[in-house]
């Protein structure tokens, strides 16, 4: 059975340590060969747009979120919450390549699959 991990991150610049921790776990899981699905919700929605992660504050002793997000985009799947995108006026055309927009039904399907572990930050 393939190991899978779904991570939902709700924090962005409003809670930089929590946001960085979620992306660190996602990137570490990708590097370990785990199938990762990262969901960007709330203020984490801004990571989905070009330049969004560059505006994130640098944290001492932490890998920059830009680097972490690139690891996840390259080896996992990144999804922006439908409602979160709409509230911020974001469409698919506004997003970084490879990031999709999907809603709660897709999230529920992912987290209820056998063998999937889910984390929320």
UniProtKB/TrEMBL annotation:
Pfam families: DsrE. It comes from the Bacteria. This is Putative peroxiredoxin. It comes from Actinocorallia herbida.
């Amino acid at each position: 059975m393939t190991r899978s991990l779904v991570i939902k991150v709700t924090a962005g610049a409003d809670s930089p340590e929590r946001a960085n921790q979620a992306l660190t776990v996602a990137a570490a899981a990708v590097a370990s060969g785990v199938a990762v699905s990262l969901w960007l919700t709330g203020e984490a929605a801004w990571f989905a747009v070009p330049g969004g992660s560059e505006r994130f504050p640098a944290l001492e002793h932490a890998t920059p979120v830009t680097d972490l997000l690139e690891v996840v985009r390259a080896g996992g799947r990144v999804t922006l919450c439908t409602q979160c995108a709409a509230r911020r006026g974001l469409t698919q055309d506004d997003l970084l390549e490879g990031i999709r927009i999907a809603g709660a039904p897709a999230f529920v399907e992912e987290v209820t699959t056998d063998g999937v572990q889910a984390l929320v930050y």
